[in-house]
Amino acid sequence: MALQHKFGDKLRRVRERKGITLKAVARSAQVSESLVSQIECNKVSPSIDTLMAIADVLDLDPEYLFRDFKKNKKVEILRRAERESVVQAEVTYQQLSRSPEPTDKFAVEAFLLEIPPGAEKGDREYGHPGKELGILLEGQGELVYGTQTFDLDTGDSVSFQSDIPHILRNTGRKMLRAIWIITPPRMLFARR
């Protein structure tokens, strides 16, 4: 099995630059010289304690060791041709983000909304846990939020806790188009 995270090259470069022998690193870290050599050659993956002991001997900031790991997180790209659309009660929801993994506690779900004149999205009776953020790209509308009503126009943005009943209604004469972001996701487009 190939090692997923390779620290050996970095450790060897620093050790050689500082002119420290394998034997000296091993003795100070209280591990075998053979183990240090295997780690430097990326043949074994060290325990976190061993890795930190070697980093300490080399006076090496652990951030340097893990920097590449942090820079290589997953990026989700949803191509325009791959977007799905769903129509519910005359409102079209066009997928702008992939459905997140169930374990992603910071997940959001994003849509391009198209609401025809007189139509609306939301619920007069119930809210749901989380927050919403909307940006009107075209058209006019109103947000009914609990007992309050807010007029919205092209270019306006709105954000709110979504646990209060709320409705976005198109009050104009043309299509209302908006980008809408919800967290936690409602999972309108479940992963396939």
Compact overview of the structure:
By secondary structure, the chain is α+β, with helices and mostly antiparallel strands.
What does this structure look like?
There is one protein chain. The chain has 192 residues and is an alpha+beta fold. The chain folds into 2 domains: 8-71, lambda repressor-like DNA-binding domains (434 Repressor (Amino-terminal Domain), Orthogonal Bundle); 80-183, Sandwich (Jelly Rolls). It contains 5 helices and 10 strands; from the N terminus they run H-H-H-H-H-E-E-E-E-E-E-E-E-E-E. It has helices at residues 8-18, 22-29, 33-40, 48-57, 62-71; strands spanning 85-88, 91-95, 109-115, 120-123, 131-138, 141-145, 148-152, 157-161, 166-170, 176-183. Strands 1-2-3-10-5-8 form a 6-stranded antiparallel beta sheet, with no helix packed on it. Helix 2 crosses helix 3 and helix 2 (22-29) packs across helix 4 (48-57). The radius of gyration is 27 Å and the shape is rod-shaped. It starts with 7 loop residues before the first helix and ends in a 9-residue tail after the last strand. The model has no long low-confidence stretch (mean pLDDT 89).
Search tags:
single chain; 192 residues; alpha+beta; 434 Repressor (Amino-terminal Domain); Jelly Rolls; 2 domains; six-stranded antiparallel sheet; four-stranded antiparallel sheet; 10 strands; 24% helix; 29% strand
> How many domain units?
2
Would you identify the CATH architecture of the largest domain? Sandwich
The name of the CATH superfamily of the largest domain reads: Jelly Rolls
Termini separation (Å)?
29 Å
Q: Could you give a short account of the major beta sheet?
A: 6 strands, antiparallel
Give the topology string: H per helix, E per strand: HHHHHEEEEEEEEEE
Instruction: Return the structural class.
Output: alpha+beta
Q: Per CATH, what is the topology of the largest domain?
A: Jelly Rolls
Question: Which overall shape is indicated by the principal axes computed on the Cα atoms?
Answer: rod-shaped
Number of helices: 5
The average pLDDT score comes to: 89
Q: Unreliable stretches, pLDDT < 50, 5 or more residues?
A: none
How many β-strands, per DSSP?
10
